[in-house]
Amino acid sequence: MNEPISISTWSFGIIAARAVVKAFREGKSVLDAVIAGAQAVEDDPSVTSVGYGGLGNSIGTVSLDAAVMDGKTLDCGAVAGVENIRHVASLAKLVAEKTPHILLVGKGAEWFALQNGYPLQTLLTPETVALWEKNAHQMKVAEPWTHDTVTVLGRDAQGNLAGACTTSGLSYKLPGRVGDSPIIGSGLYVDNEAGAAGATGVGEEIIRIVGAQFMVEQMRQGKTAQEACELAAKRHHITAKRRGKTPVSVAFIAIDREGSVGAAVTTHSAQFQYAVTRGEQIEMFQGKVVIEG
Ligand code: GLY
Predict the structure, then answer these.
(1) Element (H, E) at 97
(2) Beta-carbon neighbour count of residue 251 at 10 Å?
(3) Which fold would CATH assign to domain 5-289?
(4) Are 187 and 180 within 8 A, CB to CB?
(5) Model pTM score
(6) Which of 170, 171, 204, 210 for mutating ligand 1's site (highest number of atoms within 8 Å of CB)?
(7) If we measure between CA atoms, which residue out of 68, 23, 50, 90 comes closest to residue 165?
(8) pLDDT tens digits, residue range 145-189?
(9) What is the DSSP letter of 55?
(10) How far, in Å, is the centroid of ligand 1 from the Cα of 166?
């Protein structure tokens, strides 16, 4: 039997990785294991780009986006622009389970959370209020090392795939701005018959290339997870060049049907680390930098 595996974005992927290992040990499904990983990061206020302790938008409000997808059934759910609810990855799962819809936004998503017993909570911390006040006049987006989405992909011992992603999005974003994370196919896509893929970084550029679905289709056609990630990074460079723009920081992760993992990042500016679990083992890696299309 294969060991369960997972891959989680950024250095704080280690927080997710520990929770995923624990969840698999407890016999949770691969979907619940990746959500447990995402939720562990949502709960950690030291991560200023996810959940509790996420940085505010241009008017200082923390607004969260999340998505989940089950590769066996293709069930998926997402929420966007959610305020005062911390556990948006599990909320995205409830959208998939309890509604005929895939994406709930803003007040509707918050109402749905309250109906399902989620508490209203402040997502700001004294540290993020101070950070916001220091930087808001410049409307600076978060530095690469302070962001971004935690995307967690997993594969269980039977080869079932699942993914979850959760983020407060670009800091100092315009109110109402939604990135790639809750857009199924952009920030996340999972299909047992092809692979699991997710993204992190500047959401607008991930949406432009429909990054996660692009990678899954590459794997469907026989590419490895690593090849699919590198092709997505190249796709961003090609797109940026065609538009006369400078490439931005975007990173991709994937797991293919055989259980190989992959990761690639588009610029040197982001020190893109990721965590991989195999059974009880957790290892950190540096994403391969792909700088040309
Ligand atoms: N990748 C997260 C965002 O752009 O919102």
Answers:
(1) helix 88-98
(2) 32
(3) Glutamine Phosphoribosylpyrophosphate, subunit 1, domain 1 (3.60.20)
(4) yes
(5) 0.96
(6) 170
(7) 68
(8) 455 899 999 999 999 999 999 999 988 899 999 999 999 999 999
(9) P
(10) 9
